[in-house]
Please model this.
Amino acid sequence: MKPIFSFFTPADFGRVYHFLRSAEANDRLAYDRVRLQFCFALHTEFVNVQGGFGRTCGLWQDDNGIVSLALTEGGNQWAETFFAFRSEKDKTAELLGRMCDFAERFTSKVSDDRQNNHYNLCVADDDEILCAFVSERGYTKTGQKQRLLIKTYPKEPEKVILPEGFTIRDARSTSPFDSALAHNHSFRYNQENDGCEKGFAAMRAMPDYRPELDLALFDPEGQPAGLANFWVSERSPTASLEPLGTVWWYRRMGLGKALITEGINRTRAYGCTALIGGDQRFYWDLGFEPQREHGFWAWASESLRH
Model:
């Protein structure tokens, strides 16, 4: 049967989560189960995108369940969209066309002069079917990339080295307030936005959340100095790190490395043998290596002035 479209609703969260975790290979997607949980919890409150997932995310389903997804991080202000598929054979020209129609209409961002819409579609470089389709549709590949970096664990646990007086605690003895403060000052976000604390509280209800892997770093005064949350699943030997940050006044002290080392040591108990991190120089220097690259394909509507 022809897949039937529907907009995302909060009731779909569990089904979308299980779709993204259904195969270990899905942990190599640019938009994986961890990104879904992190964005659904934090962005809804912190970025104030109430209802944004419903307005910008879509599902295509048949009698056997979800066939494909068009996903955003909860709104179109980022102008970035991600597709996911049940299988390669589901990437038919008919379905891809419908998905691109949806993305162009509902996930694109309005230009500042309100004369056109635009968005970028994230596509794995090795996805020949989708790359060829969007190229023929008139999309232009940009120079923007998103690399998946993974670190293989050392054979034995490593010692966590912290400056004198600094301590690492987990969510069994910390609060969302601690995580929110560390998060806002790590990335220099608006300190008046209490949605961050609400978002970190919501994160604690996510299915892959483990309080013993939700780490907070404190300085000698007992003030938050950093955070790191590690996500695990019994289906995969690969853990994920999201987010990681150290407050701006304690940079270049080895705090980020200490948090990662602590997290690696703890996730070993779940059978993990590798960790997915971010695509910054910091991760490369710690031994993370690129495993898959995604490019961004730009689309823009014609200007209303034409």
Notes: The chain has a mean pLDDT of 93.
